[in-house]
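Could someone model 2'-deoxycytidine-5'-monophosphate with this protein?
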Amino acid sequence: MRFCSLAVLHKIATSRNSSQYSPFTIDHSQITTDHSRTPERIHSDRIPNPKFSPHDSFHLLNFSSHFCSLLMEKKIIITIDGWSSCGKSTLAKQLARELGYLYIDSGAMYRAITLYFLRNHIDWTHPEAVTDALHHIKLEFLSNHKSGHCEMYLNGENVEYLIRDLVVAEKVSDVAAIKEVREFAVHQQQQMGSGKGIVMDGRDIGTVVFPHAELKIFMTADKEIRVKRRYQELYEKNPNVTMEEVRSNLEMRDYIDSHREVSPLRKAEDALELDNSHLTIREQLDIALRWTRERL
Ligand code: DC
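Reply:
Sure, complex below.
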């Protein structure tokens, strides 16, 4: 059995495309990230094999170890879609941290593009103006070494904080509905996922960006609970914000996101629904981790 396994293991080990298993095969000009949290490897000295000479045993252990590592390192794509303010990014960040995966907030890309359009007075009702403006936009996610999370950079400037402002939130759904903008963002999102080992949240991630993702989660929560959560988040930055403003912005975004012509928000047929209205952050993470383990 053992020599047979050796051949099989060798075949499997050498037939895998190593780039498929590298943590990220993304151009580092686009993204840098923390590689320190890769899953633990099984070391060969933990697998005794007394029937072989030290030499044979060494090779077998090496192959076994390599094979086990490949299994351990099986990386998948996890998509999290859903309504505004239902906690997608909280779950996505925690899941990515637990798994040693890359987390990408696709909404941040649409927000950064919106910020650029607003600052540069781009008339986004004109497709030529949009196409021209997109040529001047460089989006990058760079790791914040303190938080360990990737933050959004627009043409070299960290805009992670600015893009959360209500001024951007009021316009982002209109900008995200533009075909040219979506093509621009989706292409980059797909490149980021080419090495797998990624958790990406948004509205069309399981339906359009990664239709073959191994795990698709669709998050929902009661609307009033979502309004309260968003209000608390915005209030910390701007105490002048009112609950009514937050509610109408959320309703408007839900409507535009789910009724737009290009890639509207909808649950993928094979997505698992997670209603977190009455779940704690820990409970929702445990559910998502269980679903992930079932797919590894
Ligand atoms: O997730 P968020 O609230 O940061 O998203 C901001 C806006 O971008 C929201 O109106 C929906 C839109 N969006 C989108 O259309 N597709 C995505 N994949 C992510 C966000």
